[in-house]
Write a structure and sequence with these properties.
Elements (H helix, E strand, L loop, with lengths): L8 H6 L10 H16 L14 H15 L1 H28 L1
Helix pairs in contact: 3-4
Length: 99
C-alpha cells in the first residue's frame, strides 16, 4: 500500500526529524493554555483547595460516570458532582430557608 504524501504546510510542520531542536507543539500549546487560564482568572470555586466534596459523592459520581462513558466519564463526573453539590448548597438550600 502506498504511503500518502501530504503537501499541506500544517502536516509538514508537525513532522519532526531527529535533528529537530524545536519543542513539541503540544508542549508549547499546553504552556500557552495554562498561562491564558492564569491570566484570565478562570479558576473558579471548584478549583480552589477549600472546595469540599463529600467522599461518598465522589465515589458514586465516578462509578456512575465510569459506567456510562468509561474513564473519560469518571473524570468528568467528579467536577460535575462538585458543581451539583455547590448549586444545592448555594441556591436550593437558601431558597428553602426563605420559605
Amino acid at each position: 500500500m502506498a504511503q500518502i504524501q501530504h503537501s499541506d504546510p500544517v502536516w509538514s510542520s508537525l513532522r519532526r526529524t531527529p535533528d529537530d531542536d524545536r519543542p513539541p507543539a503540544t508542549l508549547v500549546l499546553g504552556i500557552a493554555f495554562c498561562a491564558l487560564l492564569g491570566w484570565a482568572g478562570v479558576a473558579g470555586p471548584l478549583s480552589l483547595p477549600t472546595s469540599t466534596v463529600v467522599g461518598g459523592a465522589v465515589v458514586i459520581a465516578a462509578l456512575a460516570g465510569g459506567a456510562l462513558l468509561g474513564i473519560l466519564g469518571a473524570l468528568i463526573a467528579i467536577p460535575v458532582a462538585a458543581a451539583i453539590l455547590l448549586i444545592i448548597k448555594q441556591v436550593i438550600v437558601p431558597r428553602q430557608n426563605e420559605l
